[in-house]
Automatic annotation (TrEMBL):
Keywords: Oxidoreductase. GO terms for molecular function: oxidoreductase activity, acting on the aldehyde or oxo group of donors, NAD or NADP as acceptor. It holds the Pfam family Aldedh. It comes from the Bacteria. This is Aldehyde dehydrogenase (NADP(+)). The keyword Oxidoreductase applies. PANTHER family: ALDEHYDE DEHYDROGENASE-RELATED (PTHR43353:SF3), SUCCINATE-SEMIALDEHYDE DEHYDROGENASE, MITOCHONDRIAL (PTHR43353). Residues 12-461 form the Aldehyde dehydrogenase domain.
Amino acid sequence: MITGQQLINGHWVQGEAGQYQAVNPATAAFIEPVMSYASKNQVHQAVAAAAKAAPVFAATTLKQRAEFLELCADEIMALGDVLPERVALETGYPKARGEGERARTVNQLRLFASSIRSGEYLNIRIDTALPDRQPLPRPDLRYTNQPIGPVVVFGASNFPLAFSVAGGDTAAALAAGCPVIVKGHNSHPGTCELVAQALHKAVQKAGLPAGVFSLIMGSGREVGSELVVAPEVKAVGFTGSLAGGMALFQLANNRPEPIPVFAEMGSVNPVVLLPEALEQNAEGIAAGFVGSLTLGVGQFCVNPGVAMAIQSPALDKFCAAASAALAKVPAGVMLNEGIAAAYQKGTVHLAEQSGVELVGSGEAVGDKAGFCTQAKLFKVTAEAFLANPHLQEEVFGHVSVLVSCADQAQLLAVVRTLKGQLTGTLQATAAELATQAELISLLRQKVGRLVVNNFPTGVEVCDAMMHGGPFPAATDARFTSVGTASIARFVRPICFQNYPAELLPPELQNANPWALPRLVNGVKTSAAVDA
């Protein structure tokens, strides 16, 4: 049952800062029950509980933490149909989307459990003492990673499960051994509470301190700001807009003790259509592009917001095919009224820019209820694109701008002007790829993931995924927010020098009781170290 309460230090309590109701974006009707907002005092209670839990949680074994993550996954699945049904009610997504996202969320938790059992994320390095080395002896040095401390995670609007309460940031932080305080998203508060109920049960079953996980809801920026500036908080995970991410980043950097904000923000995810590929398969590429553009009403951070190609009859064929495909796309329900209004404003702004023409549109909204919008594809010359930075701005939703270039030099010029992106895509033949070293080099500097003859929509959760990129796609291009490598965001290295052997953490002990892979005197091994 959804109560509208906050989870603070293991207790469900009524928020002290007002009430609100979620809205069904498909109908614009309010959804029961009435929810509550946390007060500043309640934020401080959650933070204090996390700080108290931090040393206890950090001291858990890899096995204990892995089993806890698996319990989280089990408890989410135990919620049954009520969870995807609530997702559908609060987001306008079909129930199948909620079921798919639930599967991704629990599989993600189980993947992290498997990953931390291996101990790879600890990056253990041991250089034993060399007392007889000349001219100076070497001390015994042992390096490992340890949890950074309490982490605040901001739930995303567009992924109510996979990037929210038990999503990637939360899974990574818990895997690292960090307590988590989630600031839930007000677009889907019931979904947030249901998942928090599952994680709360997992905390209890695992015998962990209550402060390992809390859920806070808040209006405006007050609660989020209070969480970020709390001195006990040591890192922030965020997925959302550039404005939101930068506001948190600046708050965190203005603290007496600055902390990292791992924010995944805006990206237009350029798609480069090379001539031979278009010549061979313009219609097929157009179909794939429109499918990627309109999937989930375009409400993905890897939605292809810009495409570019050299003008040719094959590009004209692509435009005609894309227009025909778009015309069959129904008006889509956006996640909330604010996102729908921003989309309408953004598409009007694009249409008003000099040199911009409409290539095609989806079906009209007509008399549909709720927060519905129409898909659109615009076209502009490279000259106009290069002269107008507004055309590079992300409009969140199912809209894209196609840039028509006169030649290869102009295509490269367009790519050079791009800001940092989550993804870059090449539609190309093998022969073209072999001759596009400069283009590929430029894209590698701009993106976190380079896609070839696929489309960017969809982020596989696995060991090899990179979901991040140069600013402004993310605040730190060195890290991913998806996949097991994302754990690295929430640990920090520590080196023990000449530390008493009997007091070393288990992973650094000579006997290697957890049988972990370690770099010992430059050699990767799981063997014990000779005393």
